[in-house]
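#struct-queue
[09:14] JT: dropping the first one here, sequence first, then the structure tokens:
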Amino acid sequence: MHKLTRFAFPLIVSMSLAACATGPNDPNANAKEKGAMGAAVGAIAGAVIGYQGDHSGGALRGALAGAAVGGALGAGVGAYMDKQQAEFERQLAAEQRAHQVEIERLKNENLKITMSSEVSFDFGSAQVTPAFSRTLDKVADILQRYNRSGVTIVGHTDDVGSAAYNQRLSEQRADAVAYYLEDRGVDRRRIMTEGRGEAEPRASNASEAGRQLNRRVEMIIKPDPNIQ
């Protein structure tokens, strides 16, 4: 067996198994999994570099050093997003119970917050409603405290009206949310906006219920990958 493979492979396998060892109700499962997977990736990189520099034992030393660095970075990002998600879940609990907001953790550690346009904007308008402003106040407060996250705001519409009209409306709504967050103290450099019009429906536009699901604003919250 190649020396690099013989030294690094058992370490990488053990770290990968550790990523799967968390319980289903473990509140820190994301951080632990991210840390173990980061350690595995770091081990691979460290082993390659170490082997190239010192064939006698550099692969193993490099794998261990890479695992330490990769694990710290991975666990740091996961723990940071665990805490941020818990804040959103707590602060937006009433909106979730009313089916006005959905909070989802994505595979890449991003958070997706989906907000129904039924409470966000009046029909055909890009003016933030008073009810929506109260929700955005909570979001702005959390984003200010977790200032190592960026946010992409994405507007979506149903297919009522022309495609060009809906594209423009979706962009205007995303911009309106961005301006509101900026007014509440969130650094504008952390915010990006997109409008996707009627191009990405969640349901069929053939019914009012489907069109209601399609009218929405999404926030994709992305952590700084260098968090430790």
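[09:21] JT: and here's the second one, same format:
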Amino acid sequence: MIMRAIERISGKGIVIRGNDIDTDRIIPARFMKCVSFDGLGAFVFNDERSDESGKKHPFDDSRWAGNPVLVTNSNFGCGSSREHAPQALKDYGIRAIIGETFAQIFAGNCFSLGIPALSLEKAEIAILQALIETKPDTAILVDIKKKIVSADASNWDFSMPESQRKALLDGTWDSMAVLAAAEKEIAELASSLPYLAG
């Protein structure tokens, strides 16, 4: 397993509007009976995607469906700490989430999957959401190194925990890859511990 640095994420955007969107809305509990996270992406926002109003959910609308940059509002990912929520978003194809604020545990779970949760100001989010909705083909660039989100000739400085930003840049965000890279050192230490001898 090789440590993978994440410096830039680019792609088109998808907008989910609203504050306090909780993890039960992201992935309803009845879909959490799986023994792995594979296939959870099909059920992201399931209850809202099957709305009887007939209006297509952004995750099903051909203008935005499958786009990798999710743009939302305040306190995204609140509620229960289920890691199934970011896992489902990842399985759907989301590679970066931009919002005003995030629930702390949700943002941490995203980080552990290599999905940066980035914060912009409320007014900046409004501009970016309107841009995505009116110009669906707009390319969005998230530059982790420069701490900038770019779209349609506009640039915005994002915020995120500096420790997470550095870990994304040097590849240490992936704890399993870090352990695999230290296999020799771990074996040497284990052999020196008396309670593991033999």
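[09:30] RK: nice, looked through the second one.
[09:31] RK: The helical segments are 23-26, 46-49, 84-92, 104-111, 122-134, 162-170, 175-181, 183-192.
[09:31] JT: good to know. The domain at 8-172 is CATH 3.20.19.10 (Aconitase; domain 4).
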